[in-house]
Each structure stands twice: as C-alpha cells, then as structure tokens.
Design a protein that fits this description.
- The protein is an all-alpha fold.
- The chain has a single domain, classed as Orthogonal Bundle (434 Repressor (Amino-terminal Domain)), CATH 1.10.260.
- It is built from four helices and no strands.
- The protein is globular, with a radius of gyration of 11 Å.
- The relative contact order is 0.23.
Length: 70
Amino acid sequence: MRPADIKAAVGVEVRSLREKKGWSQEQLGFQAGLHRNYIGGIERGKRNAGILNLAKLAEALGVRPRSLLP
C-alpha cells in the first residue's frame, strides 16, 4: 500500500468514528489534545499522523490504535 493510500485510509476511519460520536473536528481535537486543523488534515489524507497522535486520537475515540490503521 502506498503512503498516500495509508494516510487516506486512516483519515476515512478517523472521520467515520468522529461522526459516529456526533463530534466536530474541534471537539475531537479538544478531546485528543490536537488542533482542529490537524484533525482536518488527517481526515483529508493530507497529514501524516505520528504514532503518538494516533494513540491520542484512538483514546479520544474510545478505540484501540490499531483500529485506525488499514
């Protein structure tokens, strides 16, 4: 899988889980301790989320970090 495909797949999963919770990007950012613009970049597949930030997102979303990966 190409890096761009991985970033896009992670973004789709983050957006899906966020929307299931009924949260805005700003709310997820607050819960994860990340900026809303960073969340938007991840969801669009434009940002490369590091391992620590994936862990923060997973914790905020109530899932295991591996569930964010394709």
